[in-house]
Amino acid sequence: MPILKYGSRNRLVFFLALIALSFVALYLVTRPLAERFAVVAAIAWATLIIVYMMYRWRSIPPVYDPQLIELRHLVELQPLVGGAFLPFSGWAMSPNDLFRLVSTIQVEGYRTIVECGSGVSTIAIGRLLRQLGSGHLYSLEEDKAWHDMMAATLAAEGLTGVVTLIHAPLEPYPGADAGWYALEGARQVQAGAGHIDLLLVDGPKSVATYSRYPALPEFTGQLDENSLIVLDDTRRPNESAVLERWRAEFPLRIEDQPDSPRGQAYIRLLPRS
Ligand SMILES: C[S@@+](CC[C@H](N)C(=O)[O-])C[C@H]1O[C@@H](n2cnc3c(N)ncnc32)[C@H](O)[C@@H]1O
Prior knowledge:
Layout: H1 9-30, H2 35-59, H3 66-76, H4 78-81, H5 95-108, E1 112-116, H6 120-132, E2 136-141, H7 144-156, E3 163-167, E4 170-173, E5 176-181, H8 183-193, E6 198-201, H9 215-219, E7 228-231, H10 237-249, E8 252-255, E9 265-269
Parallel strand pairs: 1-2, 1-6, 2-3, 6-7
Antiparallel strand pairs: 4-5, 7-9, 8-9
Helix pairs in contact: 1-2, 5-6
This protein binds S-adenosylmethionine.
């Protein structure tokens, strides 16, 4: 029952109430036989249950604790994000989502990757592609100061041969209420990338409803049914609206990721009939 899942407060309260009730019930049933016997039986029953619960709670790790899962993924990501200090703030992709993403890149053999919005994900994907020995990441970045900091980090990590970081300040874009990356940036990606295996949409900053809408129409010519499109943060109203608009304009299949903390969506283009 989801309301009584392992490690939850509901489960604890439920079982404590059950123990208390069984204690009282045992006492009330045995008291007519002999009062002293009823007290002894109830205390023995409570002791037995407490010993059993201590044994169970020691042997069942709280595997469903979301914070523990995040921590576990952060540890598993260390080969890709460890070593140098990286700005792993609330702006960065959640460790759960980043872990699933880099695993998917490795398992599916994605090699040409385009990212909207640079950060910790850029370093992790760049390091993975270097480890795999082939592939290239093109990353569009709107913010000049952030771009310069990321460029210095990529250089210090020796990733400039694997990652092309493009500074593309926001410019007006039809249908995107707060603009989108300067189109020379997108043209640079289009000239270099050819077929895109993975389009990761985690920027520009989500300041208006359709801030992230243009990524799909702009890169659609380089995507096909074999490409994966990833849109982060679809639990937020803006990104949810972007997903709905994409769905209305393109034939899409959305693969549900129920355990993604921020609703990172995996999207496939369907063949146009
Ligand atoms: C959602 S963030 C992109 C995060 C990136 N894909 C990652 O996983 O780390 C969108 C934009 O926020 C800005 N940004 C990223 N990390 C930041 C940080 N730690 N602090 C401030 N701004 C950040 C950058 O301009 C970036 O393009």
